[in-house]
Amino acid sequence: MLALLVILLSCTFFPGVIVKTKALFSGRKGPGIFQPWIDIVRLLKKGSVYSTVSSYVFQTGASVYLASVLVAALFVPFDQHTALISFPGDFVMFAYLLGLGRFFLIISALDVSSGFEGMGANREAFYSMLAEPAFFILMGSLAMFTGYTSFNEIFINLHYQDYFSIIIAIIAAFVLGNLTLVETSRLPIDDPLTHLELTMVHEVMVLDHSGIDLGLIKIANNIKFVLFSTLSANCFIPQTWSLGMQIAVYLIAQAGFAVGIGYFESFRARNKMAMNAQYILSISAISMILIFVIIILNNKI
Amino acid sequence: MSLLFNTSLLLSFALFFVPKRMKYLVTLLLQVLLIVSTGTWALDALMGSEVVIVPLGISTWSGEIIMTIDKLSAFFILLLDFVCFAGVLYAGGYLRTSIAKKRDVIISLHFFSLLWLNASMVLVTAMGDGLSFLLAWELMSLTSFILVIFEGQKETTLRTGINYLLQMHLGFALIMFGFLVVKDATGEMSFQALGPYFATHSNTIVFLIFFAGFGIKAGFIPLHTWLPKAHPAAPSHVSGIMSGVMIKMGIYGILRVTSFLSADQELIGSIVLSVGIVSGLVGVILAIMQHDLKRLLAYHSVENIGIIGIGIGMSILGMANQDPALAVLGMAGALLHCVNHALFKSLLFFTTGNIYHATGTVNMDELGGLVHHARATSLAFLVGAIAISGIPPFNGFISEFLIYNGIVVNFTHATFAMSLAGLASLVSLVLIGGLCVYCFTKAFGLTFLGSRRSFHPVTYHRIPWIMIFPLVLLGLAITLIGFFPRLIVEPLAGALTAFGNLEAQSPALLSTSSALQAIGLTNLVFVVAMVVVSSLRAWQQARVVRATGPTWGCGYSAGDFRHQYTPTSYASSLLEVVEPAVVYRKDYPSIAEADIFPEKRSFRTHTSDRVEQSVVITIIDLLIKYLPMAGRAQTGYIHHYLLYPVVFMIVIVLLTHFNYI
Questions:
Q1: I want to staple A68 with a disulfide (CB 3.0 to 4.6 A). Which of A98, A100, B132, B489 is the partner?
Q2: What is the pLDDT of residue B142?
Q3: Contact by Cβ (8 Å): A61, A210
């Protein structure tokens, strides 16, 4: 329960911090921290326009996307504090639940008979397919290192087994950080602020979503963002500290992560579209390195 | 029960004599008899502790034919009875127009074969004796051949059918050869004799002979070439039954042989695993490239057989490394995937039949927007698509989870070699899952969503309820396994008792049943979340203005259906990455510089299977080149022809004399 609460708490400021950071770096004052949520609330109050060709798939797509991300949020622990749902191999279900949401987002994009949205759907399907191995190799290697197979037990046992766990935590956090960027369609894979549909991935998929559906998708994206950043924060927060300290450190780490993304996005150009596949595969390659490091550490060779 | 079984089979000959419109009802009735009798035996075997033995009262020269149904057989019998029943139900709607048009005897033969295919598959799973097994196996191939060539007036269908028949006989020959090797060494021709044989001889070679023989039926790459040809040619209910359960008979055979292995498991496991990985990946990649929905589904069978192969391979490796958890979970995952694949693949093939019924085509290049004309069918397809992609809350996820779990549990204590095997299967399972999503968003999205990709007007035919009802039946089974996965654990643990060395280890499976319960609960939580979110959305929608309008064309207002993605363009981003597996050809005369007023020209893309091109076609080309040499023996002189048997007999006498045979 605690895990869910801190996740929801950091959801409130996470997107705002990124926007604010980017504004500051480009020399603007920028909107307030909570502006993204205010925008979402406004969307939730608005009416919607539906394409004449769309069907029930389009009507349910956004809801399924949000529901799947919400359920996936129940799987993520906060440090040693248990997640609501935990069982051996739960990370497989976590990843596949996100897959369910993605499946519906893709087919609702195909539902409106638009070439642009088809393009976004196609890219989303392709990139997520390439990114998925990185997450599984990472979790597999952490399972190999700790000897456990659920999120909870992995994170409890990851800390301070010896000094190597710090190296492993750093690589894991790096992989998770990169995965966050792919999963939530940020730079350098996709630029959420781009103005040209031909270069979009996620944004072009939701072109025809309006009103509450767009709001639901945005909520889900914000939660998804925090889920991944919580996973990487879990690699670091010491378990011996008091609960208050842990939450404080966690929130600071989240804010830091958001600032980092804002900084990164201010100074990094997006990839050429054709380079994306290579970029995403390199994340899997890095997690592959991790698993071989662990094989060597465990004296298996 | 034996009486019921025999009666239904004997009465099946009456199909040729009843009036045309009664044939379907008689078939259905006889099939119910068949299912009741075989299902009772299977349930007895699965619930009880003893093997059910049924003498059929028929004798061959190798003794009386006896059905021995153990828990593994029972597991497969229940599965195939269910899918065959759904298939025959579906046939009632699908064949309605054909029954009116076609000749009496063709319809009789079709229903007769449908019934006997079901019976022969039951016999295949229940025969322990080699000879009667081979007879049942042959019966299965012949009946399915007749079913495939239902549209035999088309030349391509007939050609495909003959190709299928030939490949099945190649498999038959290999299986028979395997049995003969065993008989030569042990004096007995049965599965039981494999035990003593494997205990004293090299395991690998005989296993590989059986693996190749059964692999042709199952569709492992590179033995898969009949699948993408036969399925589009066959009627949809036949494709559903064949892809759903008949190819599983190949898996059954492999499992049966595997259960007797006693040495070389490391090598055998690695071979099965590698074949599984290649089949899974290449199968799904080729599926993505297809335009024809039924070919797409056929390649998905190859992919799913690959997943089953990964499960079996990891399980054999687990047995070799004394890792009971991996051995049990891998095998349980493979077995459950047999069930799951049978359910969702037959569902998908039946929906394809509905699409064909409604529009007259299954070519995705001409489809689109079908959701507005066939709502129930689209829902059924969606359920099947989610299930086959291995996504919760449906059944496909459960079996993949078992295999994943086995691999990850093994990771926690694996040796170096096992870590590599686990890593390879983990990565390929994940990639297969991702590619499956890619493929089924394409299949569902381009067929049912958007707008129709053709200028030619079409009249949509209404889909009668009898073509929807079997889909509901299968969809319910899919949902049931997805939400209550623990129900299936007990029968699975039972089926695993066929593997002597796994018997004691089924606790490993039962211990994951708590995880399975958690998965079922999570699925329910998802449904609750879905209900909450959508009712909030409905509440909001009732209070705001809902408008409809044309799709936003990004400023371009003259767009029409031609702007949509096509099967080819949806697959094109993947094509660059998977070049090694696919041969891609584009037929398009390019426009020369001097062509100021280009003529009308057409554009056509074609992808084909590189494995087939480079392995199968090459071999066939070699055969075509060198086999005519044998023709020289055909001289046309009767003297020569008389000489050949004389030479043959002399050789035999000499060989016997010197004790070579």
A1: A100
A2: 94
A3: no
Cα torsion for B193, B199, B205, B210, to the nearest 10°?
Answer: 30
Express each pLDDT in B60-103 by its tens digit.
676 778 888 888 999 999 999 999 999 999 998 888 888 888 88
Cross-chain residue pair B408–A139, CB shorter than 8 Å = yes
3-state secondary structure B347-375: HHHHHHHHHHHHHCCCEHHHCCCHHHCCH
Minimal Cβ distance to A107: which of B434, B445, B526? B445
CB distance from A276 to chain B under 8 Å? Answer: no
Alpha-carbon distance A73 to A69, whole Å? 6
Which among A49, A126, A211 is the nearest to B549, CB-wise?
A: A49
- Pairs of CB atoms within 8 A across A/B: 257
Share of chain B above pLDDT 90, in %: 51
SS3 B335: helix
- Residue B608: beta bridge partners? B583
Interface of A with B in 140-159 (CB under 8 A): 140-141, 143-144, 146-149
- The pTM of the full predicted model, rounded to 2 decimals, is 0.93
> Would you say how long chain A is, in residues?
301
CA B503/CA B497 separation, integer angstroms: 5
What DSSP string runs through B234-287? S-HHHHHHIIIIIHHHHHHHHHHHHTT--S-HHHHHHHHHHHHHHHHHHHHHHH
How far apart CA B325 and CA B407 sit, in angstroms, is: 9
Cross-chain residue pair A149–B408, CB shorter than 8 Å: yes
Residue B118: both structure tokens together:
């079901």
Helix axes B2-11 and B23-47, enclosed angle (nearest 10): 160
Angle at B143 between CA B138 and CA B146, to 5 degrees: 130
Report whether pLDDT(A217) > 90.
yes
Nearest residue of chain B to residue A143 (CA atoms): B412
Give the integer Cα–Cα distance in Å for B49 and B46: 8
Question: Which of B378, B534, B551 has its CB closest to that of A60?
Answer: B534
Please give the Cα distance from B330 to B256 (Å, whole number): 16
- Inter-chain CB proximity A93 and B522 less than 8 Å: yes
**Cis previous bond, B628, omega within 30:** no
Cβ–Cβ of A49/B565 closer than 8 Å?
A: no
Whole-number Å distance between alpha carbons of B544 and B15: 62
CB contact under 8 Å between A216 and B533, yes or no, is yes
Among A97, A75, A99, A114, CA closest to A206: A114
Question: Cβ contact (<8 Å) for B409 and A149?
Answer: yes
Question: Please, are residues B229 and B164 in contact by the beta-carbon 8 Å criterion?
Answer: yes
Contact (CB, 8 A) for A114 and B559: yes
CA angle B60, B64, B69 (to 5 degrees): 125
Region of B63 please: left (phi>0), alpha (psi -120 to 50) or beta. left
Contact B416 A149 (CB under 8 A): no
Question: Who's near A57: CB < 8 A, 6+ residues apart?
Answer: A104, A107, A108, A111, B371, B382, B448, B449
Instruction: Find the closest chain A residue to B422 by CA distance.
Output: A140
Torsion sign over Cα B142, B143, B148, B154: positive
> What number of helices (H) and strands (E) belong to chain A?
11, 1
Q: Residue A295: its chain B contacts at CB < 8 A?
A: 416, 419
* Cα–Cα distance list, B106 to A40, A86, B20, B169, B547 (Å): 63, 57, 10, 24, 54
Rounded CA-CA distance B51/B497 in Å is 11
Query: What is the pLDDT at residue B502?
Result: 66
Handedness of CA B643, B649, B650, B655 (dihedral sign): positive
- Name the residue facing A50 among B515, B519, B548 (closest C-beta): B548
Taking residues B498-511, what's their average pLDDT?
A: 66
Pairing type for strands A48-51 and B546-549 reads parallel
